[in-house]
Amino acid sequence: DAGITQSPRHKVTETGTPVTLRCHQTENHRYMYWYRQDPGHGLRLIHYSYGVKDTDKGEVSDGYSVSRSKTEDFLLTLESATSSQTSVYFCAISGLGSSGNTIYFGEGSWLTVV
Amino acid sequence: SQELEQSPQSLIVQEGKNLTINCTSSKTLYGLYWYKQKYGEGLIFLMMLQKGGEEKSHEKITAKLDEKKQQSSLHITASQPSHAGIYLCGADEQTGANNLFFGTGTRLTVIP
Question: What is the dihedral of CA A37, A7, A113, A92, to 10 degrees?
Answer without folding.
Answer: -20
